[in-house]
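// run 5 | inverse folding | seed 20
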């Protein structure tokens, strides 16, 4: 199931205890859900992911979380459960109990599963994103179980408030918070957001349709779900093409999503500042990216 190199990487990323836990849970759920031919997805960020076959459900993805991300795993499960296979991947089975540490899901596997990022045409990528986005967002069954988009901004303000080495970024997060307050005075619906709705998380099915994976589960107005897509297009563009490309994308989405150009630009700035705050929390950040996004609201 694992190569020696994979075992070393798992232990380095998650520790011996989590590795032992993963092995136990593979045994438990392989029997419970009749799983076979488990193939480890070589990724070590948040969850242990396996492609597998089930006598009950067919081709699946087994997703096992360690104890280090209780909330995130449960948010993802709940949003997939609420959508129940509509535009998102479907959850076939689960065993989630925060108190006991059980956080396991068996999810539909998308075939061929080609990421939208592999589509060479920018217009095609934007068309697919727009089709999925329009009409996507729903009112949550219980908003209190999710994190609010605004809470993430507040967390960033708090984390930077006492740091003397990030004063430039702190100025921007305060500005982003003010802009967020202005935007949400008008765009104030409380709906389920994906939180990371970008082309790596959109997979193509055999029939040509696309499905969404890996929701973070946030609460806010749908306009706040647009900017992460733009952000990832930005980060995967050359410096020379960024200005023209971002202007083109924003103009396209203004028409396809019926969201004012100004609002998309403001949300792009908010998202960029938040994203660079995340980078700052784990090491370093690039203030030039924030300055670039700020120019779009000038």
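// decoded
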């Amino acid at each position: 199931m694992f190569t020696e190199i994979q075992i070393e990487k798992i232990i380095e990323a998650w520790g011996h205890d989590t590795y032992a836990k993963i092995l136990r849970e593979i045994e438990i759920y392989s029997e419970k859900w009749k799983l076979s031919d488990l193939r480890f997805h070589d990724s070590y960020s948040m969850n242990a992911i396996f492609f597998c076959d089930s006598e009950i459900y067919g081709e699946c993805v087994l997703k096992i979380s360690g104890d280090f991300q209780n909330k995130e795993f449960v948010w993802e499960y709940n949003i997939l459960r609420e959508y129940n296979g509509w535009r998102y991947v479907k959850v076939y089975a689960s065993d989630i109990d925060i108190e006991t540490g059980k956080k396991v899901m068996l999810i539909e596997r998308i075939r061929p599963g080609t990421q939208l990022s592999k589509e060479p045409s920018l217009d095609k990528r934007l068309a697919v994103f727009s089709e999925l986005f329009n009409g996507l967002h729903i009112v949550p069954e219980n908003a209190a179980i999710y994190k609010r988009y605004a809470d993430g901004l507040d967390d960033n303000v708090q984390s930077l408030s006492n740091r003397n080495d990030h004063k430039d970024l702190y100025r921007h997060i305060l500005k982003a918070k003010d802009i967020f307050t202005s935007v949400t005075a008008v765009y104030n619906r409380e709906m389920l957001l994906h939180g990371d709705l970008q082309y790596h998380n959109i997979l193509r099915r055999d029939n040509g349709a696309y499905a969404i994976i890996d929701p973070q589960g946030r609460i806010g107005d749908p306009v706040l779900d647009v900017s992460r897509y733009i952000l990832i297009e930005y980060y995967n563009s050359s410096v020379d093409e960024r200005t023209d490309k971002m202007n083109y994308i924003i103009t396209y989405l203004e028409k396809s999503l019926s969201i004012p150009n100004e609002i998309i630009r403001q949300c792009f700035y908010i998202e960029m500042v938040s994203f660079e705050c995340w980078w700052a929390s784990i090491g370093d950040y690039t203030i030039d990216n924030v300055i670039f996004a700020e120019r779009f609201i000038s």
